[in-house]
Amino acid sequence: MMETRPQASSGTTGKPVEVQVPASAPTPPAPLAGPGSMTRSKPETPLADILDGDARREVPIHEHGFVALLDVMPRLVPAGQTADAAIVQAARVSYGQGTKKINEDRGLIRYLLRHRHTTPFEMVEFKFHIAMPIFIARQWIRHRTANVNEYSGRYSVMPDKFYRPTLDQVRKQSAMNRQGGAERFGVASTNQEHGGTDVSPVSSSSPPRLPNADCPMPSSESLTAQAFIDYLRESEDLYKKYLDLTNKGVSREMARIGLPVSLYTQWYWKIDLHNLLHFLSLRMDPHAQEEIQWYARAMHDLVQPLVPITMEAWRDYATEGGAVGGVKLTRLEVEAMRAEIAALKGGRGEAGHDQAAAPASTLATDNKREQAEWEAKRKRLGF
Prior knowledge:
By secondary structure, this protein is α+β, with helices and mostly antiparallel strands. Helix content is 33%, strand content 15%. It folds into 3 domains: 169 residues, Gyrase A, domain 2, CATH 3.30.1360; 86 residues, no CATH class; 51 residues, no CATH class. Helix 2 packs parallel to helix 10.
């Protein structure tokens, strides 16, 4: 191969003269490190499988749902320890392993979580296989700190599995929380509501029967709850139409459009411990939708024995949720609490200065939602 290089100008024309010279040979790449350059080390102490050899640990949810733990990092830990050891190891990386006593490890983990030094908790990861209704999956995917791969309705036919609550699980719309409901519809008969004898609730598998001496008239709330169950059953009937259309050639990606969000989907979900704790704080909270709370509690129960020290600290210190942990107070709530304590002490402040005695639970805001949240916190604090 030849390359062109400019030379000095010609004496007759004054223009540069280009001369072709042999190109230099390319520099060969540096050899890759071979097997002989790798160092292998044996563990200082025997290692144990944190899952005791289990390929899967599964908790059933509803009729068709489940939460299954498939893998953990670290999977192998020093015998007699848990995955908490990986958190301690990461926290002490700057100056070696340090102390080796379990009680000192516990103190360090509690310190890290209490002061929100969360990076060491990202060294532990969990891989789950989960089946849930689509309406739960759409809430779940809002947690964007995990790796997710979901069942595809474009490539495969969706399974004939739907979530349908029982009649006594049908909830009313909350008057305070626009995105939630807590109070259930009453499924007792009108005889019960007016002091009559005990009557079995209306069956969720069939519409209410006409009243007679043995089966009194269902209440209006029972009828509303039953109407909702019937509504779900009717939406499930669309699955037959879905299969028929796919069999006639409609693409799966189009045919699925008409299916209800009560249909089940499933995915693999991998997340580190730090972000899992945040997920549990929000989804175990009483304000979260009840159905997703069941999944969060199942995940909590699966990871609890694998990182017991961390989970103990999280229950003591977590503040996002109302189901576990401490109580997070805003500035307005702190001021209201100080005023209430001052009132209980007869109007004398901590520094001995007179303060205006405020009625209990007074909060300096007209926002009803904030006032309701403050009242709930007061009850948790024992006021």
